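Extended Data, panel c. Modelled sequence:
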Amino acid sequence: MNYPISEQTILITGAGRGLGAAIARAFAREGANVAINYRHSEKAAKALAEELGANAAAYQADITDPAAVLTMVRDIETTLGSPTTLVHNALADFSFNGDARKSLTDLTWADLSAQAAVAVGGALNGIQALQPAFEKNGGGRVITIGTNLFQNPVVPYHDYTAAKAALMAFTRTAAKDLGPAGVTVNMVAGGLLRTTDASAATPEFVFDLIAEQTPLGHVTTPEELADAVLFFASPWARAVTGQTLVVDGGLVFD
């Protein structure tokens, strides 16, 4: 499947706000049909859909619920057309606040599994729900959202980083399995973004410290990361799969 972005229907999980909303705006800017998934952010998701126009719509579903995801995909097919691309951006409730994070002493398996259920379980549910569409379209695109904390765990957010690391592994194994069907699966791994709801609790001096250590001299914005996501959905990335692209202004080198 090598459709230009303007001919694609994009499902973005967790797109009601933050990075997901920036990704939705980026695809809408390029002329795609945009399906905005949300769990609780109904008001924000519907406002975003109205902002983006007739080629966008909001769909409620808990990405960890396979039946809800399947119903959502069927609704998208009815209203926007058969999805060609999945951007799995949804994030379990989390705040990037180093002072308030759980240490290894306080951490429980439930903390890790809650993050993994959304990061990995959500990717699995999304891919399975879209497989009939991929077959219909002769292929497709899956783009997951990761983190540069793999390479540089400057703050040990154990649960979040472990779940995203598992998602990176799943991205690669899914690429191997789906490749023969013409589906590429890649990850865009961002750093701390300035600013989303999740990073709103981050002290200002942390942003300044990151900017000083980054070759480009500033903290990556949601809009900058969103543009990188476009690459993996485009025909230009048709021969790229199983890869992780770090988008953090050069803070870490993969």
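The two ends are 28 Å apart (CA to CA). This feature is highlighted in the accompanying rendering.
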